[in-house]
Each structure stands twice: as structure tokens, then as C-alpha cells.
Amino acid sequence: MKRQLLLTAATVVLLATPAIGMAQQPNPTTPPAASNTQAAPAQGQLSPQDRTFVEKAAMSDQFEIQAGKLATEKAQKAEVKTLGRNMVTDHGKTAETMKALAKTKSVALPTALDAEHKQKLDQLGGLSGAAFDSAYVQGQLDAHRTAVALFDGQIKEGRDNDLKQFAQKTLPTLQEHLHHVQTLLPSVASTAPNEGTHGMQANSVLPDGTLSNTAQSSQKVSFAKLIGTDIYGENGNKLGDVADVILDPQSGNATAVILNRGGVLGIGAKQIALDYALLDATGDRVVAKQITEDQVKAMPEFRYEDTTVSLGERSRKSGTDAPRTQE
Question: Which of 3, 98, 143, 153 has the smallest number of CB atoms closer than 10 Å to its CB?
Fold first, then answer.
């Protein structure tokens, strides 16, 4: 009887052993638990968007610092020298911040200017006086439009929170730079050298109130007739119509035209300042050279200053009563 009980117990143990072993194995038919979060890049790794932002922002800082140093040495106008000093200071700060960020992200920053920026810097270095002032300020306008778009894109599309916060903190300063350059441009645009183009940058005021271009002396265009004239891009698209002509207070030369940019039913309408040196009136219409419609769209709204000199009725009043566009 006792032997029978022992045999029965052994049989039970043997029968139970496979079940225990099976219980310890994972069920191949059970899928892993789903995750509700998207995997972020590992520490030190950046998305292509973030990496591109870091590289372009660092290159922009390098160029601004080196070009700003040139401006402090070569600029003719005091305000252009001041602009250069401000660029060295402000972009020097952002460059240091970017170096610290790049180190934490294990990203190597460019150590020298790329071919495009080096060419621009070399061209600036070959100029002096008024020609330098005009080229530097125009270059700053283009550079800061690009920078504003770059930082705005990082805020909207970047994945790295540290870089997004850096972009959010820096963007207002870049926008302030852009507005400063925009207001400074009319005072230096008329000094651009005539490089054999058919533009209107060499025009000067004649006694009868007309313009005479040294490259095309047979053509005369009245300042007053420009107001209301449609301005077209090189692709034939209308950029706007001339609301005013800005003049250099010392020479009387035209430095910019103020374009009406119409919105839809008045919504989104604004006025922008377009460099007079870009205009070409050789054909049956006035065309703005070397600028795209997208660049015009990105320009900030023009604001009249108390010292603005122009042909338009809005700015003919003197002193503090000089009106401004609505902000």
C-alpha cells in the first residue's frame, strides 16, 4: 500500500513538471506592450532639422562677426560703423551660446566660413567709403531676412527643446536687427556704385525735378510720376505700386521707393521700402532687379521717422508732426 502511494506521488510530479516549464517561457503569441510615446533622438544625437539649424546659425554668427569688424574699420557713415559694432557684440553672444549648446549635443561647429560667405566677405573687403556702406547694409538686409526665416523655422519644426528655446530667445533680437537695417538702408542706398547696369542708382535731381541716369542720359523720369507707378519683378509679377519716394536729405538723391502691398480686402496690406538702386525703367514698365517676390513679402513694414525726407504728402510735414504708418 505504501509503495503504491509513492508511485502515485511520483507520477503526479512527473506530469506536473512540463506545465511548470511551459509557464516559465514567454507566450510567443502575446505581442509586446504598445508604447504611446515616440522615441526621441538619443542624448547627443540631433534630427536633420536640428543639425542643419545649428550649422547654419553658427555660420551666420561667424559671418556677422567678421563683416561687422570690417564695418567698424571701413564704413564711412557713423551709423554704419555703429551697426557693425552692434553685430559683433550681439552675434558674439549668440555664438558663445551656440558653442555651449553644440558641445552638449556632440555637434562639431564649422571652424571657417563656407565658400558663399567667404566670397561675400572678400567682396566687402574690396570696397571702401560710401560704396562699402551701401554694400554692407544691403548685405545685412539679406542676411537678417535669411536668419529670421531660419530661426522661425526652428521654432516651428525643431525637435530639440534646448535649440527651440534658444531660437525663441534669439529671434526678437534678429527681428530688431532687421528693422534697424531696413530703416538705415535709404540713407546709404543712393551711394551704390554704378557697375554698368541699366538701373537707376546713379540718378540725381535736375533743376526741373526730373532724374537723369548717367548710364542712360537720354531717359528722364519725373520723381512725381513714380508715385502710383506699378513695380514689377523680373518674372513679370506685380510687386506693388509706389506710394512715396524717399530722398537723401543732403544730396536730394532718391534712395528708396515705398510700395503699397495690398492684402485681401485690406487685410494684410502694408508698405515696404524697396531700394531705389534695384529699379530699372528701360522698358515699358519699372522692374525691380535682383529681388524675388518672396523676399518682398518677407520685408517688414516701413515706418516713417521724424527725419524722413520724401515726396509724399505724408512726410512733407516737419518736426514731430511727421506722420508714420500705422503699426
Answer: 3
